Give the backbone structure.
Amino acid sequence: MYRLIVMHETRALARTGALWAILALLIFAIAFAAWSGGRSVSRQVKGASDAASYEAAMRDRMRTETAEYEAKVEATGGPYEFATVRHAPGQGPPQGTNAGAVGGETAVYVALPPTGLAALSIGLSDIQLDYLPITMGKSLAMTANAELENPVNLLAGSFDVAFVVIFLLPIFILAMTYDLLSSEQERGTLAMILAHPVSLRKLMASKLMARAAIILMVVTGLGLVAVLTVGTQLETPETWLRFGLWIIATLVYSMFWFALAVLVNLYGQSSATNGTILAGAWLILVVIIPTLISLVATTVYPVPSRMDLTVAAREAQSAAEKNMDKSLNAFYAEHLEYVPAGDQRAMDFMTLGQASANTIEKALSPLYAGFQVRRDQQQGLVQRFQYLSPAVMMQLALNEIAGTSGQRYEDFLQQAVAFRAEWNDYFAERFLRQDPLRPADYDSFPVFRYRPEAFSTVLLRLAPSLLGLLVLLLGVAMVPFFGIRRYQVAAR
Amino acid sequence: MLEAINLRKSYGDHEALQGLNLKVNAGDIYCLLGANGAGKTTTINLFLNFVEPTSGTARVNGVDVTQNPLETKRYLAYIPEQVMLYGNLTAIENLEYFARLGGHAGYSAADYRSFLDRVGLQANAANLRVRTYSKGMRQKVGVAIALAKQAKALLLDEPTSGLDPKASNEFSALLLQLRNDGAAILMATHDLFRAKETGNRIGIMKSGRLVQELSTDEVSHADVERIYLEHMH
């Protein structure tokens, strides 16, 4: 019986233009979103590797010069010396021997490697830089948030597969189901069918199955094609685990919208009324509540503008430059071990730079800390209020699955900050001691190795959103499941 | 075959049906007459379990409608005022779907064609999508569904209203065929002439009550109209 009605519904649907229009739009949207997501990820990966290889080439050049210098020193038997900054070009030791020049003027890039599914949900990765330059002196926070607000991206996000699933898929689902029962009622075919030995429950379930099968096969099929074309690391089981989670999340989210359509249909209103109610529900759940949550988050916990940060950084910089002598004295007061034997005025510019950077970092650190606290508070608020909207839960879930969540980025930032300290310490010490770098030292520079999070950590962070969606689905599905008995086929 | 025992249906304060007792046997064509709102459609909806009775029992082939709705629907065929079909399927496809829903999956394409032949649907129309059909053609498909379902009881709700006299006459002829095959037919109608001509029993309803029953072979056309109008005043 189920099979009969499912087949009949599929045939009837296939003969309407609406189904083909919906499928064509869905396929086009997902294909475009996957292409755009894939482009964004590959641009990021390419950007990171371009930047890294540019800086590496600079260091290689320095190393070559140093090696030539070392060979010359060995041949002539002179001392192997440290290059001061104010040296005459072409004479004396090359810059490559100066740890301050190598560590401060070339950068090493730390990169957050995208997961295999990153292209499916870009998340905030277009404003959170996935690769950061690490140099001696400059504090990381200044570069981490160098990207200024892009209002369009902040508001709308990017057109990725997650956007299609969260925003557009419900519209397609509702377009196919808003009149699931009311159309049969209005056409008069409901009475014809129910004069046969078919229960309303069986009829509704079959009609739903036909539509859900079409939509979900297309969506998961396209998802698979998207992973195969723009996904990466296809050989690792983690990518497929993540894709499995992606399918589960998408199914649960879609079924919520199907259940909502059934629920509204059971109140026996006209198709037009059902359509209006469901469109309103979409607007409230997908647009208004997420916007309100974001509005509340930014109003209750306003983050200082990144623009303000940049301005404050510049002010601190110029203040530090004005007080360069004073700050130098302050610095030496703290680090007596670095005071050179000779005259203080003979100190080169790089030392002053190092000292002033320290001062600036100290001046700005409360600002950055405040910024960080606010961002954590905002994220916490969104986490708490996500249960108000399936769209927010789904966005958090998909970001987590694709590895573009705020928390994964936070973890990366912490690793980057720790590495920056390591890099800074390595070069600052050699530099302040005026210990010349040898070519062989180039092999022992600190190297950043991203420590991936345990998959269990990812699952743990994913659980609240996914379980929230599941509970919501069961809640919405429960009402029609028990309420269907009371549906009156014949209006009075 | 169709039996109503003290059947009541009220909507809030309004009593749509006030204790109906009615019996339609195999081979009967029972015509329910009465003004709009007299309770004719409510009676049919109660037999179909489309509405729940407030009290009383409706039985089809001896089976209680509210207790075993799905079983009773195996015996029933329903032809409403407008037989509504799936517009983008052909008559054959519609017929096949409804026959299968009724539990008859064994028919061949030729069988479906012969059902449509028997109800007089033009052969070239059978493969057209029913969107293009006239009401008379759709009512014929409705009867073909009843034939395919081998219905023991038919519930007809003003099936001929709006049909031209020729189509109406053809429809009546089909009902007589079904009756001769042993079906019990309950038909709500406003057509006094058809009721006397086709039916063998007539029930007149007023405000949710069955006020009079007649046997058509005992009264003339004029009598039917006179008695009917007497009750309506």
Chain B has a mean pLDDT of 90. Chain B touches chain A at residues 11, 16, 41, 45, 48, 50-51, 69-71, 73-74, 76-78, 80, 82-86, 88-89, 93, 97-98, 100-103, 149, 155 (CB under 8 Å).
